[in-house]
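Support request, please re-run this one:
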Amino acid sequence: MKILKLLGVVCLVLSLQACSVTTAVKTAVEEGALVNDQIVLAGETTLCRVVSIGAWIRRYGNNPRKAQAWRALCYPYITELP
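Re-run finished. Output below.
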């Protein structure tokens, strides 16, 4: 009987620890997603607002498809005030 009680306590402790591990993993995943979103935003800002005219022309200016893709991505950035 004591062994069953001990087993019950061990199971309870392990299940409670599993909850905290699950929460930690969820928090880490959410933090990772937030960091990745910030990286994408920084990249879009650089691509759309910070790139020099010369760099833009070299990269997109001689390819209409690339220029159109840049416009589709960056139009909201270039039409609003910073």
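Residues 17-79 form one domain. The two ends are 71 Å apart (CA to CA).
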